[in-house]
Design a protein that fits this description.
It is built from three helices and four strands, in the order ββββααα. By secondary structure, it is α+β, with helices and mostly antiparallel strands. The protein has one domain. Strand 3 and strand 4 form a beta hairpin.
Length: 109
C-alpha cells in the first residue's frame, strides 16, 4: 500500500519485529530517507482491540511523515523540537479523525 504525503509517495508496510530490526523499541516508524512507513504486526498484546491500536500507530507515523515532508521536523529545534515531540504527534494521530468529522459537519471541506 502507498499513501501520498504532500505529493510524495510513501510505502506502508506491516511486519513483525523479527523481520525488521528497527521495530525493536517501537511499534512503528517513519523513514523519510526511504519514504517508508512501517507498523509492527501485533496480533496479541495488552489491549483488547489490537487492530484499532495498529490504526492509531499508522496515523501517528503518517503525522510524522507530514511533518517531515513539510520541513517542520528539522526546523522545530528552535522551539524545543515540537514537530518531533511524540506527545504532539500522538495528539494529532488521536484527534485527527474527530477534527476531520467536525470540518465535515461544518461544511468546511
Amino acid at each position: 500500500m502507498t499513501v501520498c504525503i504532500l505529493g510524495t509517495e510513501y510505502s506502508i508496510d506491516v511486519c513483525r519485529e523479527k523481520d525488521d530490526k528497527l521495530l525493536k523499541d517501537c511499534d512503528g516508524y517513519c523513514d523519510w530517507t526511504t519514504k517508508r512507513i512501517v507498523v509492527e504486526e501485533e496480533d496479541f498484546g495488552t489491549l483488547e482491540d489490537m487492530q484499532e491500536y495498529k490504526k492509531k500507530v499508522l496515523r501517528h507515523e503518517i503525522v510524522h511523515a507530514f511533518l517531515l515532508e513539510s520541513g517542520l521536523h528539522e526546523c522545530s529545534g528552535e522551539s524545543e523540537a515540537w514537530a518531533a515531540n511524540e506527545t504532539m504527534v500522538d495528539w494529532f494521530a488521536r484527534q485527527g479523525i474527530k477534527i476531520y468529522r467536525a470540518w465535515e459537519e461544518a461544511n468546511a471541506i
